[in-house]
């Protein structure tokens, strides 16, 4: 994270952001009568952001309209925060103080600051003029009435989301499966969770046929990362297991991607892994009292003389035989081994995140995440509530038995694709075959990587899933 967030009083020379639902003059703003009149006139003209130049500082009046559903008000606050942050950078401001009146709740303010800080993210590692291009805003001082613990936790989540964005934005020639595991190891050292990284020999010994098959066309070895956060007084006896798809680059394999522009951003195919690993970082750093395990199978999917091909039969970690009809349906192959491996923990719940299908993205775009699974309604509703809280909304797809008929194989137990219809669901039905516990599948293919700026989510890697998982795990306290 490149933005420092603290609590404190506003200095006389500090540029101020005044967040309010309806404007009323505040002595902390030090406005004269003409400025007050100007602000009121602008607001009457339906302006939601009014700026005042005090020469030695700027004052921003930011109006947040209330919605009936509070989470929608919070989202408006995030977007408004992003706009003010962009304006501050345009004006080369290094510091902003954000204050509220008594009618604005603390969570609206925290959402506002969250949008400002997340919108301030940049990935400049490979930019020649990075110093010149870097945003000027480096510090946000929050109204001192906000608890320091809330600010600390918000900073952790923002930092974790930015780390996930960094991982997704890294090109494949800088981040292979081993590099991804190394990044998780570094996060483990910084936050305190335990990690074990299985190499190719151990993966073979565990008979993870799906992961090994996808890796056959690569010159780089696969990895299988096992992360665990187990606090002394965890509220859960059975762990929550998170699983992330870690395909660091996807050519489609022998079923080579041929659609226009379908391969040029496939470095993002490990967005699920980034979300899971960085959520673990945040959970451990915030010391949430929940026992959580994360599993990340990782490889790239490339072409080579020994690459797996359509028609192959692969024996998975579970012992099930899978007929491969499309090598571009590789994410479910490596996730299946991880889902099968997770059975050893007797988990209370397993949540997997994956940039799994173009069908999910086609169905709902980048506006939300497709979800499905066999967990009970109470669990799914709680996760959906967290999705609303952070505005990473979940859209549940059905998992009717009939969809399972589409992945039956003539020569093996199942096949890895189900045909042209309901592709996101048949992928989920495939994964379900490897579970014997409550499970929820999140297909983040739409929101994980965006090609145009999307407010505080930015452009390119969004870090989707980190805030969702953190909010859900926090709710289990």
Summarize the topology.
Layout: E1 4-8, E2 16-20, H1 33-44, E3 49-53, E4 58-63, H2 70-90, E5 95-100, H3 106-119, H4 130-133, E6 139-143, H5 148-169, H6 177-191, E7 194-198, H7 200-205, H8 209-215, E8 223-229, E9 240-244, E10 246-250, H9 271-285, E11 292-301, E12 313-315, E13 321-323, H10 331-341, E14 349-354, H11 358-364, E15 369-373, H12 377-389, E16 394-396, H13 401-405, E17 414-415, H14 423-432, E18 439-443, E19 449-450, E20 460-461, H15 466-475
Parallel strand pairs: 1-6, 2-4, 2-5, 5-6, 9-11, 9-14, 10-11, 13-17, 14-18, 15-16
Antiparallel strand pairs: 3-4, 7-8, 8-11, 12-13, 15-18, 19-20
How does this structure look, described?
The chain is an alpha/beta fold and 477 residues long. The chain folds into two domains: 4-146, 3-Layer(aba) Sandwich (Leucine Aminopeptidase, subunit E, domain 1), CATH 3.40.220.10; 157-475, Aminopeptidase (3-Layer(aba) Sandwich). It has helices spanning 33-44, 70-90, 106-119, 130-133, 148-169, 177-191, 200-205, 209-215, 271-285, 331-341, 358-364, 377-389, 401-405, 423-432, 466-475; strands spanning 4-8, 16-20, 49-53, 58-63, 95-100, 139-143, 194-198, 223-229, 240-244, 246-250, 292-301, 313-315, 321-323, 349-354, 369-373, 394-396, 414-415, 439-443, 449-450, 460-461. The strands form four sheets. Strands 7, 8, 9, 10, 11, 14, 15, 16 and 18 form a nine-stranded mixed beta sheet that branches. Helix 9 (271-285) crosses helix 15 (466-475). The longest helix is centred in the N-terminal third of the chain and has 22 residues, at 148-169. It is elongated and about 80 Å long. The protein starts with a strand and ends with a helix.
């Amino acid at each position: 994270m490149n933005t420092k967030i603290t609590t404190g009083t506003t200095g006389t020379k500090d540029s101020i952001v005044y967040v309010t639902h309806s404007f009323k003059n505040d002595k902390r703003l030090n406005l004269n009568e003409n400025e007050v009149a100007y602000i009121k006139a602008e607001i009457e003209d339906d302006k939601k952001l009014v700026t005042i130049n005090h020469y030695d500082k700027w004052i921003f009046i930011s109006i947040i309209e209330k919605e009936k559903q509070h989470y929608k008000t919070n989202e408006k606050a995030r977007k408004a925060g992003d706009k003010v942050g962009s304006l501050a950078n345009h004006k080369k401001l290094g510091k902003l103080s954000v204050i509220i009146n008594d009618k604005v709740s603390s969570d609206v303010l925290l959402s506002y600051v969250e949008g400002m800080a997340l919108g301030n993210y940049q990935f400049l590692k490979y930019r020649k003029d990075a110093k010149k291009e870097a945003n000027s805003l480096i510090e946000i001082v929050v109204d001192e009435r906000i608890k320091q613990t809330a600010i600390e936790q918000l900073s952790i989540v923002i930092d974790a989301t930015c780390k996930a964005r960094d991982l997704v934005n890294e090109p494949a020639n800088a981040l292979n499966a081993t590099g991804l595991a190394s990044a998780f190891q570094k996060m483990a050292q910084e936050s305190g969770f335990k990690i074990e990284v299985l190499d190719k020999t151990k993966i073979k010994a565990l008979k993870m046929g799906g992961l090994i098959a996808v890796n056959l066309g690569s010159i780089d070895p696969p990895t299988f990362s096992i992360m665990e956060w187990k606090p002394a007084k965890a509220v859960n006896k059975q762990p929550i297991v998170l699983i992330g798809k870690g395909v660091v680059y996807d050519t489609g394999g022998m079923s080579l991607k041929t659609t226009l522009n379908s391969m040029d951003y496939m470095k993002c195919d490990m967005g699920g892994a980034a979300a899971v690993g960085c959520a673990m970082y945040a959970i451990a750093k915030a010391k949430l009292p929940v026992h959580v395990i994360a599993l990340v199978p990782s490889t790239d999917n490339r072409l080579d003389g020994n690459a797996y091909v359509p028609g192959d039969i692969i024996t998975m970690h579970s012992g099930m035989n899978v007929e491969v009809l499309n090598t571009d349906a590789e994410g479910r192959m490596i996730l299946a081994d991880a889902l099968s491996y997770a059975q050893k923990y007797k988990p209370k719940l397993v949540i997997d995140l994956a940039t799994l299908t173009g069908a999910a993205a086609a169905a709902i775009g980048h506006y939300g995440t497709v979800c499905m699974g066999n967990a009970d309604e109470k669990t799914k509703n709680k996760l959906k509530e967290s999705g609303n809280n952070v505005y990473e909304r979940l859209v549940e797809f059905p998992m009717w038995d009939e969809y399972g008929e589409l992945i039956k194989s003539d020569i093996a137990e199942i096949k890895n694709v189900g045909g042209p219809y309901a592709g996101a669901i048949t992928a989920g039905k495939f994964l379900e075959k490897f579970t014997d516990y409550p499970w929820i599948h999140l297909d983040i293919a739409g929101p994980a990587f965006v090609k145009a700026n999307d407010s505080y989510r930015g452009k390119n890697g969004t870090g989707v899933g980190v805030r969702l998982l953190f909010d859900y795990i926090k709710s289990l306290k």
